[in-house]
């Protein structure tokens, strides 16, 4: 069976059952578990499903807009938030900031121009934008890249975050309320939690549309 045919059947199984496991799919298709993981990663990158521990669930794209959509939403408010957040950029000798994925976080990048600092991020667009602004040092965190957010998430990302201690973390979210910030993807949630643990100071970047979500 070709990979494309197997992946199509995986999507059908997720739609029917609501969740699939790597081990069950490996038995069903008589392939190695690593082959199934590659299939699920490819489908996740395409935004066709959501990876969870041990398997996958249906894509949450209906609840979680993709990055281009978010970049074009509430742009003026996000720029104002980024301008205010720039006041919290650390001074001193070679400070390190941690930038989460997100449309508001990207708006912070122009405020980094001319600053002597190191950027650590899990976001491909943030890294690309920081390089375009000639930020002296840009470090990309490892991990599985989600198609919807173009952000590295997962176990490797969390482990890497445990080894660094940035001065400030600027973190985005899908929602916020009395219990804290929220995001619909469990891997994204674990990554944001690890970012908050790693940093000496945490700044949440969110516009009014996130309240109560």
From TrEMBL:
<dbReference type="InterPro" id="IPR014036">
    <property type="entry name" value="DeoR-like_C"/>
</dbReference>
<dbReference type="InterPro" id="IPR036390">
    <property type="entry name" value="WH_DNA-bd_sf"/>
</dbReference>
<keyword id="KW-0804">Transcription</keyword>
<dbReference type="Pfam" id="PF00455">
    <property type="entry name" value="DeoRC"/>
</dbReference>
<dbReference type="InterPro" id="IPR036388">
    <property type="entry name" value="WH-like_DNA-bd_sf"/>
</dbReference>
<feature type="domain" description="HTH deoR-type">
    <location>
        <begin position="3"/>
        <end position="58"/>
    </location>
</feature>
<keyword id="KW-0805">Transcription regulation</keyword>
<keyword id="KW-0678">Repressor</keyword>
<dbReference type="Pfam" id="PF08220">
    <property type="entry name" value="HTH_DeoR"/>
</dbReference>
<dbReference type="InterPro" id="IPR050313">
    <property type="entry name" value="Carb_Metab_HTH_regulators"/>
</dbReference>
<keyword id="KW-0238">DNA-binding</keyword>
<dbReference type="InterPro" id="IPR037171">
    <property type="entry name" value="NagB/RpiA_transferase-like"/>
</dbReference>
<dbReference type="GO" id="GO:0003677">
    <property type="term" value="F:DNA binding"/>
</dbReference>
<dbReference type="InterPro" id="IPR018356">
    <property type="entry name" value="Tscrpt_reg_HTH_DeoR_CS"/>
</dbReference>
<comment type="function">
    <text>Repressor of the lactose catabolism operon. Galactose-6-phosphate is the inducer.</text>
</comment>
<protein>
    <recommendedName>
        <fullName>Lactose phosphotransferase system repressor</fullName>
    </recommendedName>
</protein>
<dbReference type="InterPro" id="IPR001034">
    <property type="entry name" value="DeoR_HTH"/>
</dbReference>
<dbReference type="GO" id="GO:0003700">
    <property type="term" value="F:DNA-binding transcription factor activity"/>
</dbReference>
